[in-house]
Specification:
alpha/beta, two-stranded antiparallel sheet, Rossmann fold, 207 residues, 7 strands, five-stranded mixed β-sheet
């Protein structure tokens, strides 16, 4: 199930789930690698999606450091055509953000709901399209709620996936869109264009 709110990033953790602050992302990548294997569906799919956004990306490198009975995992990554281990700070903010989003949406044991606030921020238009595919795929396994104001992201979904949030009489209102109300418009415009033109009324009101 998916819901796009046009007009809040909560990721919770149990065993093997991403923490709300996303500060255990390295552990989640390691779980994907260990539990599903290098040829596991989620692990391979994540690497494939990251390569689409970062063409020179080769693979993650996860080094387990023993600290007594505890373990610490160090994350680096490989660049195509180079054996030099690259560090996370060698990636752009956009690249790191996409990796975090892909990790959340492809985690093998997702929570009952994932809520993401404006995931499109800082992403290349093509990365936004790929993000839309990840959201749709994750929605088959858990409930996904995304808040966005991006026409490009809205274009990846049907009109019936969208819930418009407005402020009326001092409180927030939520309205799920009906396809029949927009059929004629959709013959000539995309969902994102209807949002940009304020046909989907979630923009500034001058009344």
């Amino acid at each position: 199930m998916q819901m796009l709110i046009a007009g809040l990033l909560m990721i919770t953790v149990e065993q093997g789930q991403l923490l709300i602050a996303v500060n255990n992302i390295i552990s989640i990548i390691k779980i994907q690698d260990n539990d599903l294997g290098r040829l596991g569906i989620r692990s391979e799919k994540m690497i494939h999606k990251v390569r689409l956004v970062i063409p020179f990306f080769d693979d993650f490198r996860l080094d387990v450091l023993k600290m007594g009975e505890a373990e610490k995992v160090k994350l680096s990554w490989g660049q195509k055509g180079s054996d030099f281990p690259m560090q996370p700070y060698h990636l752009s903010d956009c690249s790191i953000r996409f990796i975090c989003l892909a990790t959340a949406l492809l985690q093998p044991f997702p929570p009952s709901a994932i809520v993401i606030d404006e995931p499109e921020l800082g992403l290349h238009p093509e990365a936004i399209r790929i993000l839309g595919e990840l959201i749709q795929d994750a929605a088959k396994r858990t409930q996904i709620i995304v808040a966005t104001q991006s026409p490009l992201l809205l274009d990846q979904f049907s009109i019936e996936d969208i819930v418009v949030v407005n402020r009326k009489e001092g409180q927030s209102t939520f309205e799920r869109l009906n396809l029949e109300d927009f059929n004629e418009w959709l013959n000539n415009y995309s969902v994102g264009e209807l949002w940009s033109k304020n046909v989907i009324q979630g923009g500034t009101s001058y009344a």
